[in-house]
Amino acid sequence: MFSLKILIVEDDSVSALLLQRALEKNNHEIIGIADTGEKALDLLDESHADIVMMDINLAGELDGITTTEIINEKFDIPVVYLSASSDAETLNKVVGTNPSAYVIKPFNIRELNMVIELAIFKDRKEKELQKLNNELEEKVRMRTAELYEANKELTKALEKEREINELKSRIVLNVSHGFKTPLTSILSSAQLLQMYAEKDHPFKQKIAKHAMKIENSVRALNNLLTSVLFFGKADANKMEFKPKKMFLGAFVKELLDTVKAGIENDVTIKTELGDLPKTIVSDSEILYQTFENLLSNAVKYSKDGSEVLFKLDYRDGHLHGTVVDNGIGIPKSEQSQLFDRFFRAKNVGIVEGSGLGLSIVKKCIEVMGGEIDFSSEVNKGTTFEVKIPVK
């Protein structure tokens, strides 16, 4: 991840120190730590920052939300909110300030990195779009006399805008619906947890149940954000293949642990590992995206009580991976669209999804120079086979 100049605005010194260490560990430069909104504005007057990590509840006359409004107007710097609260009232307050992202405390380093990268990406794209709009308006004003040429430029710009709006609409329809359900679950479960905690009776089972709902919902949100950011990089031609030495056994364990932790139905994963080398040279992040999406999809669309088979082998300088499920299958008439972005088969029913998983897999395979094939039959299941060159 690229290095950024970051201002931390946090009135709890311990939280600020932990956040500073986490950010510096990822090679970011902390230009200062402010415990009030007033000090934050003074620091920004003195030093440039690429992004601000803002605690919502601050001491002093300026709270985090008011301080953010001033930063938006005066400095135009992306702001990521930090808060231990995710209730509806807090969310309604921050929406009006158009935050770049929102992080619930306590956070983990991986989540924090993802949120910061998403915030910077969002800010840059908004500024690029604004710059394009400004340039277009200037061209129209300057070339009024050259009506024909001006109309040509305007037509091109409108066509580009139409494509952007169409893509935006599809994202809103597919991805925002995926945000809504997990957010509702997070809020309701958090409120119930608070009610149970306030009483003197033991509610360990209920607390554990709702804590699991929160964990699964947050995981679903993180997966959606990761998918959106992935295609943002791909569309901007910033997706790079960075192979390096990795321990294959540890990679497989982390992959299976993550997928199993996210299983919400009664499905088990059977693993068959061939004679695998201890280490390989590949891009672990892209490799992880490939198998995590394939396995998660297989589990999600499988019937309760069924089994997903995951086979991994190494032959002739290639990883050979196979994922077999006995799920709903893919209608033959729709199989040609399987790897299209946002595509979801008509037989998925009420199973939630964004339609991005398999398109991510396809892109990852292309970047790694591999091959992917599949076979599927409705109500009998689907088999995916991938062949990926490694060193």
**Neighbour order of strands in the largest sheet:** 2-1-3-4-5
CATH topology of the largest domain: Heat Shock Protein 90
State the major sheet. 5 strands, parallel
Tell me the radius of gyration. Answer: 24 Å
What general outline do the C-alpha atoms trace? globular
Give the structural class: alpha/beta
Instruction: Please give the domain count.
Output: 3
CATH superfamily of the largest domain: Histidine kinase-like ATPase, C-terminal domain
Measured distance between first and last alpha carbons: 24 Å
CATH architecture of the largest domain: 2-Layer Sandwich
Low-confidence stretches: none
Q: Averaging pLDDT over every residue, what do you get? A: 79
- Beta-strand portion reads 15-25%
Q: List how many beta strands DSSP finds.
A: 12
Text of the CATH class of the largest domain: Alpha Beta
* Count of DSSP H/I helices: 10
Q: What is the string of helix and strand elements?
A: EHEHEHEHEHHHEHEEHEEHEE
